[in-house]
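As a warm-up, study this chain.
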Amino acid sequence: MEVTLTEFIEECMSEWKYNEYSFNEDRSVLHICMRGYGDSIEYWQFGCWQECDFVTQGFYPIQESEEVDDKDDGVTPMRSHDYKGVYLQWWLQLPPNRRRGDTYTLEELRGMIKSSDGWGDDVPGGCGYVYYNCDENYTG
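Now compare it with the structure written out below.
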């Protein structure tokens, strides 16, 4: 699938009213900020909960959604929780000499990402944790 830069931006902005984009002064860098979802996956290791993975959903087309995999090995206590809101932002270095109407594949556009950053809310969604493979009150 090939899209123009305008179609790409419109698709990024379509899901949430909180999404935004901007260009730098010479329009060589595109900044995109999007809201989606995230899940923290944590293991009980070395006497405390340690995040081993963070997966995100809702950032298409700039990023495919990831599947939450509980990685339950039946031995290591594990928990996960979702966040009510996760915000990711990207800076894309746009090709020089581009023209209106030029089309790009999603892989080409994702390849233009030069920097990214993100943050999530501090209060897990659903007012708490979902626990896997351990007692809800597990303390180690």
